Amino acid sequence: MNKKLDLIIDAINKTKGEDVIIYDFTALNPFIDRVVITHADNLRQVYAIANNIRDDLKMNGYSIHHFEGNKDSRWILIDADDIIVHIFLDEERELYKLERLYADLPRIEEGQHV
To answer: What is the CATH number of the domain that holds 13?
Structure first.
């Protein structure tokens, strides 16, 4: 099991992130193993999810390479080295449609992320 990915998914679930999708990037990019996408219904929740992820990772000894966004952001990106997390406001997720960009990549079901 990937403990870092488990922490990220748990942090998203604790703060009620919706429609979580995990993509396997190992065959596409040597620096990124997984990309996680989720969304929330309001800006406060988007930021809460991002902060929860950041806090849980730091508490468990993982570093955050980059955190892009603030409490007013409609899309927050967290670069946790080998895992990238996109947290959208629901309308932004519909606008940017990253799922379409990643459509050919394998998805990983929650609980099956080795």
So the answer is: 3.30.460.10
Asked if residue 45 lies in contact with residue 16, where contact means CB atoms within 8 angstroms, the answer is yes
* 18 close to 39: Cβ distance less than 8 angstroms: yes
Q: How many domains does one find in the chain?
A: 1
Domain contains 114: no
Tokens (6 digits) for 15: 């703060």
Q: Which domain holds residue 76?
A: 3-108
* Residue carrying the six token digits 């990106």: 77
Name the residue among 60, 62, 36 with its Cα closest to residue 49.
Answer: 36
pLDDT tens string 56-104: 999 999 999 999 999 999 999 999 999 999 999 999 999 999 999 999 9
| Backbone angles phi and psi of 81, in degrees to 5 | 65, -90
Are 18 and 45 within 8 A, CB to CB?
no
